[in-house]
Amino acid sequence: MKTMIDSKSLLALAPQIIEATLAAGKVIMDVFNTDFEVFGKADQSPVTEADRRGEDVITAALKVIAPDIPIVGEEAKSDGHCPDISGGLFWLVDPLDGTKEFVKKGSDFTVNIGLIKDGIPIAGFVLAPALGALYWGITGEGAWIADVDGEIVSNQRPMSTRKADPENLVIVASKSHRSAELEAWLAHFPTADHVSIGSSLKLCLLATGEADLYPRLGPTCEWDTAAAHAVLLAAGGSVEVNGGGPLVYAKDLTTFLNPWFLCRADTDFTVPALTSTA
To answer: Which runs of E-coded beta strand occur in 65-202?
Structure first.
């Protein structure tokens, strides 16, 4: 039987989901402040005790909050466990996006809980525990940002994307490891400012009205993007693949890989295709 959920019921559940996000952030920061070990997954990406403990906290909480909605967690999937999500409604959880930054004792890492319905993110919760920032959004209800001190949330305020000014664009793009394809695309905007930031915070910068575009011409997994994608949609932006269609989820249940995509704060602002080298 297909679980039914709407934006109003999600809004009512938001405080509990935020509580789960903050609890995961606490255990992650507890590990961050120790000399933790770093392990390697089969794909050679790093994983730590924080990833696993954070996912355990979130999974346990979501099973109480919405017991009928299956959960796809990055670490569980890495261990070969994936529930039946054929009903179209499921959670996508990345307990620690930006593990490499975490390992380097940086601050650009996030806790991510996204809810997918029929391939589209409808709710997302993103916590940057080292930065003290919480972002969340629910399609049809809005998007918000708040300050976080431990597990205390304050200064909650709404956020939204901004209209693009072609003369003053801000593009989220890494300052290193740029591909030829990305350089060719960025060349269309020679006067734009570039901002580099880690993890799912890239999409959140568009949602807060601090940036305009985020081109991703490299591999990501669905749990990397789902939560912040939902936040950006709720704030007024878009995430599109080549051809202009939306980035959707549950595309490949073996890899959960995303294609290249483009995030736009202003959905009316026309940009070249990501494959363009003209």
So the answer is: 71-73, 89-97, 110-117, 120-128, 133-138, 142-149, 152-158, 170-172, 193-195
What would the CATH number be for the domain defined by 7-158? Answer: 3.30.540.10
The span from the CA of 56 to the CA of 95, in Å, is 9
Whole-model pTM? Answer: 0.94
- Enter the DSSP assignment of 272: -
Phi, psi for residue 258 in degrees, rounded to 5: -100, 150
- Separation CA 186–CA 173 (nearest Å): 9
* CATH entry 2.40.110.10 includes domain 170-264: no
pLDDT tens sequence across 56-97: 999 999 999 999 999 999 999 988 999 999 999 999 999 999
User: Both ends of the chain: CA-CA distance in Å?
Assistant: 50
Q: How far is CA 30 from CA 33, 150, 264, in A?
A: 5, 11, 35
Helix crossing, 7-32 with 49-65: angle to 10°?
Answer: 150
